[in-house]
Design goal:
It contains eight helices and 31 strands. By secondary structure, it is of the alpha+beta class.
Length: about 525
């Protein structure tokens, strides 16, 4: 999307440009033309094959923006979360990567090292947010052919939308133009040839048709400005609070809210800066001077309203926001720093390769959403799955560390059938994360390594025997290292203390993506 800068190459890929001429097949002749050996008549329409059936569209404004659309061929290799020391088979796809990668907003910033690529290209102009019923043209390389594809439709809706790829909620444009696999990452244009967004997802249902979504230029600009400002993508910040709408008059009266505005704070993330100024039971009535309605919306453009989350998504990581709140009937003003959410069970793995530690054949790894998807929810057990869906991190860097499998060896006899169980303590010390566990193992001087798992299940290993057996286990299973490379770095003790036991999870999902309750929302 932007030109310049050093290229960061994650995969080998080839870029293919679009030809400068757009040609289409058009109908010729009139209803009164005579049929002959070089023409035919079909259902009242005559076609003269002596005339050229190829129309020249060189002068069309569309040529300019079609020239700026390219197809990216790439080969990607996904990690194997069950065997975290190796990767899965490689796959070819048409996609994009990689000066910066915005997981939440499903965007990536690319550059090309070869300067020849840029010659003769014209950058697209970003347009403003469209209005309802405005025409929109989507360009890309979807399934069904190899050449560029153009589909048209209108803007049906503009609202805060769940982004399935990043499980976040950001502004989205709903359109009725067809978006198919391969369209993702392609631009959407208005009638003036300005880019008004990026195609990225569809809603598939037996009850609905032609519901596609476009990432608007407001989100694209935020992504680009973030990269320009920080030299990297830092993310979209939020308050880190679970809110409830206050549409019921009796509920507002009980909370001493004098008017039909405000949303109730039900839960505050312990790691969010807002936890220092907000409490459960507070009512947020304004954000940076903008009043928040009792249905959880704020003014948008002239006569529209939009979800409260829109205001927080316009900020950048580290920005300060002023909140108007009502606490036990008292009207107050508080300030808080906004930061991106940090999930206890992350939806994506930083660096692309999962961390792991092998101790006497026990394979320890952090619980992540990609691991859950690969292993299938049924194999995890209800308690572990409930933690993944309902628990919040209580301190910086907290992880749920599990044994994903046991590599059979005589040193771990009796434990070989373990799998997908959370380790709670090692020799009486609570495990904070996978790096902390590696640190505890490395610095243990006791005769035994005593691991405490969920439901008081114990695993006791002779420390010296476990160390001796490691080389045999690695050799037998062709494993390159006993731990992932990130765990070889020195462990730095976190300053924050654990605020509550890890099994004290709440009663609400940690994302709006799984909420399913219209009166509740994260912001």
């Amino acid at each position: 999307m932007a030109r310049g800068g050093a290229a960061l190459t994650c995969w080998f890929f080839q870029v293919e440009g679009v030809s400068k001429k757009r040609r289409g097949i058009g109908g010729g002749g009139g209803g009164g033309a005579q049929a002959s050996s070089s023409s035919r008549k079909d259902r009242g329409l005559a076609v003269d094959f002596k005339e050229s059936q190829v129309a020249d569209f060189e002068d069309l404004e569309e040529d300019k923006f079609l020239n700026a659309v390219v197809k990216v061929y790439c080969t990607h290799i996904a990690p194997d979360y069950g065997l975290p020391w190796q990767k899965q088979r490689q796959h070819a796809s048409t996609g994009r990567q990689v000066l910066a990668r915005g997981i939440e907003c499903d965007l990536a910033l690319l550059s090309v090292e070869n300067e020849e690529f840029w010659r003769g290209t014209e950058p697209l102009q970003l347009g403003r947010l469209p209005c309802l019923q405005d025409s929109v043209t989507v360009v890309g390389y979807p399934l069904g052919g190899d050449t560029i594809s153009v589909t048209k439709g209108v803007v049906s809706r503009i609202e805060v939308t769940p982004y399935a790829h990043g499980t976040s909620d950001l502004l989205g444009i709903q359109i009725d133009a067809a978006i198919n696999p391969g369209n993702s990452g392609g631009p959407a244009f208005n009638d003036q040839g300005e880019c008004i967004g990026v195609a990225f997802q569809v809603f598939r249902s037996d009850e609905a048709e032609n519901i596609g979504y476009v990432i608007p230029t407001t989100v694209v600009s935020h992504f680009l400005n973030d990269y320009q400002k920080n030299g990297k993508y830092t993310g979209f910040p939020c308050l880190g609070v679970l809110l409830q709408k206050l549409e019921n008059p009796a509920l507002r009266e009980s909370l001493k809210v004098p008017s039909s505005e405000g949303v109730l704070v039900r839960r505050v993330e312990p790691t969010a800066p807002a936890s220092k100024v907000l409490r459960k039971g507070d009512v947020i009535t304004s954000f940076d001077g903008v009043n928040v309605g009792c249905e959880g919306t704020v003014p948008f453009r002239s006569t529209e309203r939009i979800a409260f989350r829109y205001l927080t998504s316009q900020k950048y990581a580290g920005d300060v926001a002023q909140l108007g709140i009502i606490r036990a009937g008292n009207i107050m003003k508080v300030q808080t720093v906004l930061q991106p959410r940090k999930h206890l069970v992350p939806f994506h793995v930083e660096g692309g390769q999962p961390s792991y530690l092998i101790v006497a054949g026990l394979v320890f790894t952090p619980l992540t959403e990609p691991f859950i998807e690969e292993e299938c929810e049924e194999t995890l057990g209800l308690k572990l799955l409930a933690k993944a869906r309902y628990s919040l991190a209580t301190f910086e860097g907290e992880q749920i560390v599990i044994v994903s499998q046991v590599l059979a060896h005589e040193v771990n006899i009796g434990y070989e059938h373990m799998g997908n169980q959370q380790v709670i303590k090692l020799n009486g010390t609570a495990v904070k994360n996978i790096h902390h566990l590696a640190h505890l193992v490395d610095n243990c001087k006791d005769k035994f390594l005593t691991f405490e798992f969920e439901d008081d299940f114990l695993v006791v290993l002779d420390r010296e025997e476990a160390t001796t057996a490691s080389s045999d286990i690695l050799k037998e299973h062709a494993i390159p290292a006993i731990r992932s490379s990130d765990l070889s770095e020195p462990y730095v003790e976190a300053e924050q203390e654990i605020k509550k036991p890890n099994d004290d999870f709440g009663d609400s999902p940690v994302t709006n993506y799984e909420m399913g309750v219209d009166c509740l929302l994260w912001a």
